[in-house]
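Q: Structure tokens for this one, please.
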Amino acid sequence: MHKMWMDWKGSSNQIYFEQRLDEYRAIWQAVAKEIGARFTVLSDDLWELDLDGRKTMIHNYQLEFDNPVVLHLAGNKPLVHRLLREKDIPVPEYIVFHLSELPKAYEFLEHHRSGCVIKPANGYGGKGVTTHVLTRREVRKASILASLYSHDLLMEPLIPGESYRILVIGGKMVQAVCRRGTRLKGDGISKVSELIEAENMELRNQGRQILDVDRDCLFTLEYQNLTLDSIPSKDQELLIKSVDDLTRKQVEVRTVYNETVTDLVCDSLKHDAELAASVINSDFVGVDVITTNPSIPLKESGGVVNEVNTTPALHHHYDVNREKYPQPAIQAISILLKKQSFIREL
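A: Here is the predicted structure, written as tokens:
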């Protein structure tokens, strides 16, 4: 079984929560030390923090937030879309269909020729998700994959922009992170294709993965009104790719956030994220947003709240090379311990 797991991991080049067990143990041990709590190992992946008799348990990355009803609601993506839309929060246009209803998906594709995303209507972690779907054959293939995880399938158009996660704890935004795409600067002379090739020469010399002119690249250029033949002005910054997964181009790509951008989030976007958490009644949630500019409202940028994820993974929220733990971990644990204090007083 272990060999099968490692083979699967090796083929996908992804790091899953089960492989972060040591990292999360170290995070919670550091948090316990910081706040003066006792850290107790109950089992390999189950730990307890005790601060003056107030206790909370942790299972790897999972904390004692949200009840099963909230978790079930959050997992129902079409329902969440509908509830958010009723609160005037921008969400993607979408359809829900079954594998036996492919003509419905074909028709949706005809109205969104720049590409679509097909995913399980219930799911997480990129499982069963295919992006940049452009043909009927790809609709069929993506739908079959998604159907392995959910009977109900969700189809949305591709949304221009980069992926942001706004972390909301106890009803308040505490941090925002971004999956930064690849950027290049124009020189006023070279075409976009030539800028990419020059960058690839540097990457080859460094023994690193080169930039492919794939569907993500072409879509990303298109919404900036650029093509491979465009000549950007000198020092013009252009986004070349929004997806940083170089191994698997469009199937089950897991979002890896790599830059803290809390100060870039405008009040309107902060309000949308906090309202989204309130709508599903979650105390610990990552509100996932796609936008070209987080400093302006979603209605101005054309961005959307594309998912609301309970039990968000905190390893996205710190730099392991210079921090012992994510700062939001302290806030999360503090809320849980205060709840225990309140219960004891009752």
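A few notes: The radius of gyration is 21 Å. The first strand starts at residue 38 and ends at 43.
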